[in-house]
């Protein structure tokens, strides 16, 4: 079956999440991704549980559709192997702290001299420039620095981090779209280029509504629970047995909600709730009024009624409920595959559904150094030479 990135060769020396997620998607789209792990223990996620027969599920989740090598890049011979791989590569992805690749002799200037058409993408906490370039960067640090943590949580509560590693995934997506754009440019011009992606920049770039409020009126986003800053009702509400989400965020939906769902026509005449902006201004009072009605019935009762009248709504699921929902399963968002050590495994599916060149799960995450022999042979090494590399601690 055709895939959009067949023929693209990617060298991935990144680890943990942002870089590996980016290269995972490239592999899902058909690229030949060679994951080069540090010697001798590999990607840090290999030590993170849960474990299935000794293999990390965390590692397996974001390293599918890759071939794996384990090379000692601190050795001259190990570095030479990587340089040989780069000569025929299209893309190189790394997430060392700025300056480390220079020390290892695998920086952009060095690699682009060998392969001028190489697309080289660096992912770091704060980027390759600026006063904080050398600081270590983790997702939670970026959430605090970007202001996202300060605007997340209940109004009178503490700052709360987003439940997922949002800056890591934002950086992965930024790197992915940038690599694909650079690849299109290269197909047209033959030119490679350097891409500098940071966790902080990537997450900050997603705060478009908040930036509009700040640049437009000087408003500093505050913690607002599940409520929206300019629309109401557009948030989570308590019911008799839990919480539901309601998005009656324009005047027409608000009127339908009042007249047919909660049967409170008097709210349409209430001066606090006449317009969307007024409802947002008085959102705490509005929430209290709505919840006094909703707590009289279970969530399922209200969700059925809201659906009946075409008002966007939904449950607040726990993660296990999400994965069990028939819609998620109908969308093929849970896949099964067989891993040589883990056995039959489950993983997340592909969010984009291509009509002609679909993503595919063609290979499980590699065992540590699994493809050393195969790839070194492709580079011209003999079995005897490969055994010597192992003996001298150059490869796993």
Automatic annotation (TrEMBL):
Alphabetically ordered keywords of this record: Transferase
Source taxon at top rank: Bacteria
Single GO term (MF): CoA-transferase activity
InterPro entries: CoA-transferase_III_domain, CoA-Trfase_fam_III, CoA-Trfase_III_dom3_sf, CoA-Trfase_III_dom_1_sf
A Pfam family: CoA_transf_3
Keyword RNA-binding among record annotations: no
Stated name of the protein: Crotonobetainyl-CoA:carnitine CoA-transferase CaiB-like acyl-CoA transferase
Coiled-coil spans in chain: none
Keyword Transferase: yes
């Amino acid at each position: 079956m055709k895939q959009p990135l067949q023929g693209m060769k990617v060298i991935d020396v990144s680890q943990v999440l942002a870089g590996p997620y980016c290269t995972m998607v490239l592999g899902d789209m058909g690229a030949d991704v060679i994951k080069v792990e540090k010697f001798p223990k590999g990607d840090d996620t290999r030590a993170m549980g849960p474990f299935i027969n000794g293999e990390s599920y965390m590692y397996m989740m974001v390293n599918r559709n890759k071939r794996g090598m384990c090379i000692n890049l601190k050795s001259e011979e190990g570095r030479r192997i990587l340089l040989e791989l780069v000569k025929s590569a299209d893309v190189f992805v790394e997430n060392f702290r700025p300056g480390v690749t220079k020390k290892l002799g695998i920086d952009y200037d060095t690699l682009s001299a060998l392969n001028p058409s190489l697309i080289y993408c660096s992912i770091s906490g704060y980027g390759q420039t600026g006063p904080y370039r050398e600081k270590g960067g983790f997702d939670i640090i970026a959430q605090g620095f970007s202001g996202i943590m300060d605007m997340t949580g209940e109004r009178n509560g503490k700052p709360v981090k987003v439940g997922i590693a949002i800056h890591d995934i934002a950086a992965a997506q930024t790197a992915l779209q940038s690599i694909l754009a650079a690849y299109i440019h290269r197909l047209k011009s033959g030119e490679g280029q350097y891409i500098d992606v940071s966790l902080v920049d990537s997450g900050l770039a997603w705060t478009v509504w908040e930036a509009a409020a700040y640049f437009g009126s000087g408003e500093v986003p505050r913690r607002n629970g599940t409520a929206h800053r300019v629309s109401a009702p557009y948030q989570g509400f308590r019911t008799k047995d839990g919480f539901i989400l309601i998005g009656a965020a324009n005047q027409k939906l608000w009127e339908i909600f009042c007249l047919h769902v909660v049967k409170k026509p008097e709210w349409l005449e209430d001066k606090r709730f006449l317009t969307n902006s007024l409802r947002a201004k008085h959102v705490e009072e509005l929430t209290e009024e709505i919840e006094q009605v909703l707590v009289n019935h279970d969530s399922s009762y209200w969700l059925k009624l809201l659906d009946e009248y075409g008002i966007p709504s939904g449950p607040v699921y726990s993660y296990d409920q999400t994965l069990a929902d028939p819609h998620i399963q109908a969308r093929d968002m849970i896949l099964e595959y067989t891993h040589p050590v883990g056995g039959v495994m489950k993983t997340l599916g592909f969010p984009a559904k291509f009509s002609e060149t679909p993503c595919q799960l063609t290979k499980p995450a590699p065992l540590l150094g699994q493809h050393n022999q195969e790839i070194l042979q492709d580079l011209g090494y003999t079995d005897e030479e490969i055994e010597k590399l192992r003996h001298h601690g150059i490869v796993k």
